Amino acid sequence: MERSYFPYKASKPAAVLFAVLYSVSVAAHVFQMIKLRAYFMSVLIVGLLVEVLGYVTRKLAIDDDPTLWSFSTSQVCILVAPAFLAASAYMIVGRMMAYVGPGASVISHRLITKVFVIVDILCLITQAAGIAMFVTNVDKADRTVVLRGRNILMTGLALQIISYLIFVVITIIFDIRAQRMKGTQLKKLRPLFWASYSVAFLIIGRSIYRAIEFGTVDFKRRTQGYLYTHEWPFYVLDAVPILAAAVILNVIHPSSYLPSKKGLRMDGTIEVPARHWWSKSKSTKEHELENATP
Q: Transmembrane segments in this chain: where (predicted)?
C-alpha cells in the first residue's frame, strides 16, 4: 500500500507546475534586481526561493517512497515563505515614504521598516516552530505536542494578520496625506500604491485561510477538517495568491517608480542619515540637490 503523509491524495503535477512557475518569477526578479540595482528586493527573492524549495520537496513527499523530512520541509517552507514577501512590502512602503518626504506618514520610514520587519521575523520563527511540531506529530496517538504546535502556529498566523492590517492602515493614511501634500506629483507612484495594496490583500487573505485551515482541525476525529483534508483549497488560497503577489511585483517593480539614489526625495532634496542610529529627529539634514530633476 502506498504511504502518504498527506491527508488527501496529493497531486504531483500540481507541485511540479508551481515549482516551475515560482522559479520563473524568481528568475525574473533576480534579473530585475541586477539590472535595476534593486538589492533591497533580495528579501523577496529569498522568499520565492523558499517557495520553490517548498514545492520541490512537496513533489518528493508525494513520490512512491516519501520521507518525513521531505513532507516536513515542504510544509515549513510553504508556510513561512510569505513572511519574506511581507518584509519586502514593508521595505517598499518605507522607501516610498522616504521618497515623498517627512510629514506624510504617521511614523518614520526607518521605524516602520525596522518595527514591522522585526515583528515579521517573530511571525516567521513562531510559524516555523509551530508547523514543524504539528506535521511531525500529527499522526501520533499522544495529541499533546501536536496541539501545542498548532497553538504556536495559530499565534504566529494571528500576529502576522494583525501586524499586516496595522501596516495597511498606516499605508492608507500615508497615501491620503501624501496625496494632499504632493497632488499630481504623486501620480507616478500610484501604480506602486495599488501594487502594495494588492500584495497586502493577497497575503492577508492567504494567512486567514491558513489560520482557518489549522484552527478547524478536529483531533477527536483524527485530523478531520475540510480545508486540511482537501488539496484544492491549498492551491487556490495559498499557492495562487502568493504567486500572484510575486508576479505583481514583477510587473510593477518598485525600482521603476522609486529613485535609484538612496535618500533622494520627490522635491529634489536629499536626506542624509545621522552617524548614530539612536539620534533623534535632528538626525537628518536637508540639502538641495544641484541639477536634480523633480
A: 14-31, 38-56, 68-90, 111-132, 152-174, 194-212, 232-252
